[in-house]
């Protein structure tokens, strides 16, 4: 009987601090784009990294760390949305007065555009949203997106197309409403 070939030593799981240092911004952006409100991001991001810390020893390397992290973010954001009371208003203590400096106008315009995108992303179902966020916003290759969301490549492309169409129509509606008022 021939001896079995050795597969080599079992790979060590990545170091938590290294994963955190290299991925914290990605996790933050991903959670934000998957529907976590700005004021809850710190707590939900911490929840995600608690899961990462607890499950890091289970990481088997069959996917990239980034793909594995996205799966964790997707579940944590889904749990958050199920239990969160969504408020669409933002409280302010005082109304702004007077003219704004040009750079303030740009900052306000960016915030408004980001808020519009967040509202539009909330309208997408979870599968289309995940593909749209990873491909369009995070700029992942589509093969990696398909692996991260657990679907065939063509299905991922189909979800991307449907998500793009929804975003395009929602932006057109928002412009029409903004122009009408």
UniProtKB/TrEMBL annotation:
One GO MF term attached to the UniProt entry: DNA binding
GO biological process: one example: DNA-templated transcription initiation
Residue ranges constituting the RNA polymerase sigma-70 region domain according to the UniProt record: 24-84
Record field: transmembrane: none
Pfam families registered for this protein in UniProt: Sigma70_r2, Sigma70_r4_2
Classification via InterPro entries: RNA_pol_sigma-70-like (IPR039425), RNA_pol_sigma-70_dom (IPR014284), RNA_pol_sigma70_r2 (IPR007627), RNA_pol_sigma70_r4_t2 (IPR013249), RNA_pol_sigma_r2 (IPR013325), RNA_pol_sigma_r3/r4-like (IPR013324), WH-like_DNA-bd_sf (IPR036388)
RNA polymerase sigma factor 70 region 4 type domain ranges (all copies): 116-166
Coiled-coil segments: none
Keywords tagged on the record: DNA-binding, Sigma factor, Transcription, Transcription regulation
Entry superkingdom: Bacteria
Family indicated by similarity: Belongs to the sigma-70 factor family. ECF subfamily.
NCBIfam families referenced in this protein's UniProt entry, alphabetically: sigma70-ECF (TIGR02937)
The protein's name in its UniProt record: RNA polymerase subunit sigma
Source organism of the structure: Cystobacter ferrugineus
